[in-house]
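Appendix B. Worked example

We walk through a single record from start to finish. Start with the input: the chain for SET domain-containing protein, Povalibacter uvarum, length 194.
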Amino acid sequence: MSKKSPPKKKSPPKKSRTKSLPEIATSPLVEARNSPIHGKGVYALKPIKKGTRIIEYLGERISHAQADARYEVKGDDDGHTFLFIASSRTVIDAGVKGNDARFINHHCDPNCETEIENSRVFINAIRDIKPGEELGYDYQLTWESTDDPAELALYECRCGARRCRGTMLDVEPLDKKKKEKAGKSKSAKKKRRG
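Next comes the structure step. The output line below is what the pipeline stores for this chain.
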């Protein structure tokens, strides 16, 4: 995250490769309406069983460079974003041609998770969800340790979970994860030589 580009929801580690999947633009299981967490939220209209694919996160598919350029002029006091990293080449901007999935709020005790298949993002239930319950998943917004603390404060979490971590940001900064990954690669290479 830099001052010029808003954070993007990071791709989760869970990936699978399937051929053609139907687009899930709307879902009879959910509806968007006002939320006490933030602006609008998405709520279950009927019981949703654990493992159910609820809706697809849709929007304009753009490159990372386009996403950065598009939101370069975004105000410093605006922590709102509809960007989702779908792959190393593609970002989904649900602010353009997006559906109700863009209104699913962050939650530190989520009832959903995102799954990426062939650069498409789907929202799946990770536990049974009752009618009237608001859907939420952990955004894990990426950030750097050098980011301005005042800017990072814009991503305060308001989910109300008992163990709320207080932020929509990922637990560790991206630059720290890259260093740890590089360190693991070096030690793995040393083991292979020895």
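Two observations about the output. The CA atoms of residues 42 and 141 lie 19 Å apart. Confidence is low (pLDDT under 50) at residues 1-5, 11-18, 185-194.
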